[in-house]
Structures are given as C-alpha cells and as structure tokens.
Design goal:
By secondary structure, the chain is α/β, with parallel strands linked by helices. 43% of the residues lie in helices and 13% in strands. The chain is built from 14 helices and ten strands. The structure holds NADP nicotinamide-adenine-dinucleotide phosphate. The site of NADP nicotinamide-adenine-dinucleotide phosphate (NAP) has 28 residues, from helix 13. NADP nicotinamide-adenine-dinucleotide phosphate (NAP) binds next to helix 13.
Amino acid sequence: MNRRQFTKSISLLTAATMAPLAFSNTKSKKDLAAGAVLGKGNILTNKIPSSGQSIPLIGFGTSRNISLDLTPENITKCTALIETFFKLGGTMIDSSPMYGTSEQMIGHCLKNLDYPKELFSTTKVWTRGKQEGIEQMRQSMKLWGIKKFDLMQIHNLVDWQLHLDTLRNWQEEGIVKHIGITTSHGRSHAELEKILATVPLDFVQLTYNVKDRAVENRLLPLALDRGIAVIVNRPFNGLFGYSKNQELPEYMQELGCKSWAQFYLKFVISHPAVTCAIPATSKAKHLKDNMLAGYGELPDKKTRQLMVESFKKLI
Ligand SMILES: NC(=O)c1ccc[n+]([C@@H]2O[C@H](COP(=O)([O-])OP(=O)(O)OC[C@H]3O[C@@H](n4cnc5c(N)ncnc54)[C@H](OP(=O)(O)O)[C@@H]3O)[C@@H](O)[C@H]2O)c1
C-alpha cells in the first residue's frame, strides 16, 4: 500500500484522531504559549550536544504497544498511530530486536507513510558477539527498510565493548549517525557511570520518572557534564495507579498541563540533562495526550520540587 492508498484508507480514522487537536477558541494564556497549531515547528526541541541536531522532547517507544501480529488490520492501526505521531511533531521512534515484531511493524508503517523525512530512527543491538551484532544491526536495517540509523544503542550494556568497536567504524562510514547505550529499571548504574565517565558517547538511555529519581544523583549530572544526550525510558512505569481519580495540582493546571500523563512527562523532560522521553502507547488518544506534554511551558526548578512533593502525597 503506498502513501496515497493508505491515507485514503485511514482518512476517516485520522480525521477523527486529529479533529480535537486544534486548540479551542477559549484558549488560555498557556495554550497560546503552546502555539495554535500542533506539529512540526511548535513542539519543543532539544539539541543533541555532540551533533547539534534538534529533536523533539517527546519520542515514541515501541516495546509492547506495536509488537503485534503482522495482520493487515494491525498494520493499518499502527500506521495510523505513527502517522499521528509525525503529524503532532514527533520524530524519534525507539525500538530493539528485543521487542518481538516491533521492528517489522515499524518497517511496514514507514513504507505505508513513504518514509517521512522527519524520522529519527533509533534501535538497539542486543546480542553477544561481534559478528552476531553486525548481522543483527543489518537485519534491523532490512526490517525498518532503511540504509542507516540516526541512533544505534547498545541494549542493556550487552557486549558493549565489541559492539562499540563496530559502531565507531560505522559512524565514520555514515551508517550510524549517533551511538548510545541503554539501561532501565535502575540496573547496572555503577557500570554505566564508569562507561559514561570514560567512553565518548552521543546518547545514553535510562529510566527516570517522578517516583524513580535515582539517576538524579550521579548519572544525569554526569551526562550533562560530558555532553551526552539523555533519552528517558519508562517515564510512566505504573504511575497512573497512584494518580487515578486524583485532581491535578492547580500550579500544573496553570502551566497548561491537562492530564497526569502530561504531569509525569513534563517532570521528566524539564530536567536540564534530559534530551527527550519515549513514552509508549497503543492508543491515539493517549498519543495525543503524551505529545501535548512537549508543547507550551515546562516546570522550573521550584515547580519541579512542588511536583515531587505533590506526587509523594499520592503514595
Ligand atoms: N533497556 C531499555 O533500553 C529499555 C527498557 C524499557 C523501555 N525502553 C523503551 O522505552 C519505551 C517506554 O517504556 P515502556 O513502554 O516500558 O513504559 P511507559 O512508556 O512508561 O508506559 C507505557 C504504559 O503507559 C500507558 N500509557 C501511555 N500513555 C498513556 C496516557 N496518556 N494515559 C494513560 N496511560 C498511558 C500505556 O498503555 P496504552 O497502550 O493503553 O496507552 C502503557 O501501558 C519502550 O517502549 C521502549 O522503547 C527501553
């Protein structure tokens, strides 16, 4: 299915998804600060320190949400989701060979969308052995339908020295633009700290949210100091259970924050070391909600402290 056919087939769905996106006529000051139009040019961006390239503060995680059977219905649904992501100004899609059919699904979706030029392609190498790593990364390119990646990350530090050696050569050859390393759930922080302190890297990906703030002590200041861009995974990590049926603090409503998802994301992306967050969702409604966190005002240091205190009252 080419883009034109695809667009026709989902036009109703897209129209339904996009219709409520324009701000209403009763715009608040904060809404106006966000710009009248959602999309490229209005979403907040950060620069990747090593390359100077700008990327939006909200990306798209794909570990479970789009790892579905590759049926035409699922491909149509995921293509619509990713099309909406791009329309709302998103660029970074994060995947891994670990995530079941995710990379294959991304490949189908990108093909349907004629490979949007805004795409910031991000995946991981997740295997042991130099040759195995090379084969896996080549396979990822095939699955995505692309010839180079904007960012290749070493997943969970697995055989990182071996893969780094390959990736340095690939970076010189232009096969990968940026190189990174990932962890999650607070794992391997001591080893990661040693790596970040000594090995030149473009990106690090780690878990950070208003409940799990361990990385604030050492890893985030270190990344800031070393000029390493930070991607935050698991920005929600079960937090909605605490805020269910709870009213958003007034100071956040005044900031233009409309939901707890935006509260959680704005907390993460307002840390000075954080370059972007990659929430995952299977729902267009949640995607829109999450993308809105990347518009308008971000909390300052004082407000971030208030957010921590407000959250502590929920648990
Ligand atoms: N070691 C690593 O490198 C590593 C480890 C973990 C994760 N990651 C990356 O980080 C991404 C994000 O992490 P994650 O997927 O584990 O968790 P997450 O993004 O923190 O949370 C995803 C969950 O939040 C729900 N959700 C999303 N938006 C919502 C909204 N606006 N309102 C209510 N619920 C919402 C989703 O359900 P719905 O589908 O119903 O919206 C889903 O259950 C992954 O997809 C992956 O790309 C990397």
